[in-house]
Write a structure and sequence with these properties.
The protein is α+β, with helices and mostly antiparallel strands and 180 residues long. The chain is 24% helix and 36% strand. The strands form three sheets. Strands 2-1-5-8-11-4-3 form a seven-stranded antiparallel beta sheet, sandwiched between helices. Strands 6-7 form a two-stranded antiparallel ribbon. Strand 9 and strand 10 form a beta hairpin. Helix 2 packs across helix 3. It is globular and about 45 Å long. The mean pLDDT is 88.
Length: 180
């Protein structure tokens, strides 16, 4: 899960975005166009400032679902998770960035994206089984990493359909229909 905060309003965005290791201090973070994180980055770049960012691995599964759910941009994923599942996330301060992160996370990778800093991502195979064209995306400078002593890192195995993704999509449909 990728956590960013709007530089002016303070609203948070928790989303699932593709991340690629570039080297020991840099990651490519591919924000979806029109996402909350992409908006936060655009506002930070307009003001000439860096965008603080935290990657959260292994936390409450309810947060993982809300980070992936197609929620309205103004919806705070942490608050939505609390309202829907009763998940009361406890937060702790970031080590190097001004973001509060879930205290129970297995691993947190903190960093910042400097204005205009991009890197070419890929090539990589997408969940459809096809290779995706290389493209430029924001480059995160890693500033701190913390983890539990024996961290358990979640992952999804993707491949040609049907794969794990179909079950996540079905869960979205069931949960969202129940709310209507």
């Amino acid at each position: 899960m990728v956590l960013t905060q709007h530089p002016q309003t303070g609203s948070r965005n928790l989303g699932l975005y593709r991340v690629q290791i570039i080297d020991s201090n840099h990651l490519a973070v591919n924000f979806a166009p029109g996402s909350g994180a992409a908006e936060h980055l655009a506002v930070a770049e307009e003001s000439g400032g860096a965008l603080p960012i935290s990657l959260i691995l292994g936390s409450d599964p309810a947060l993982l679902w809300t980070a992936a759910a197609p929620l309205p941009r103004e919806c705070d994923e942490f608050e939505f998770s609390r309202a829907l599942f009763g998940a009361d996330t406890k937060f702790t301060a970031g080590l190097s960035q001004p973001l509060s992160v879930p205290a129970n996370a297995e691993m947190i990778i903190e960093g910042q994206i400097l204005p205009g800093e991009t890197v070419t991502e890929g090539p990589f195979g997408n969940h459809t089984g096809q290779y995706v064209t290389r493209s430029d995306c924001p480059m995160m400078q890693v500033t701190a990493i913390r983890s539990q002593a024996k961290a358990i890192i979640p992952m999804t195995v993707v491949g040609p359909p049907p794969s794990e993704n179909i079950y996540l999509a079905r869960a979205n449909e069931i949960l969202l229909r129940a709310m209507v």
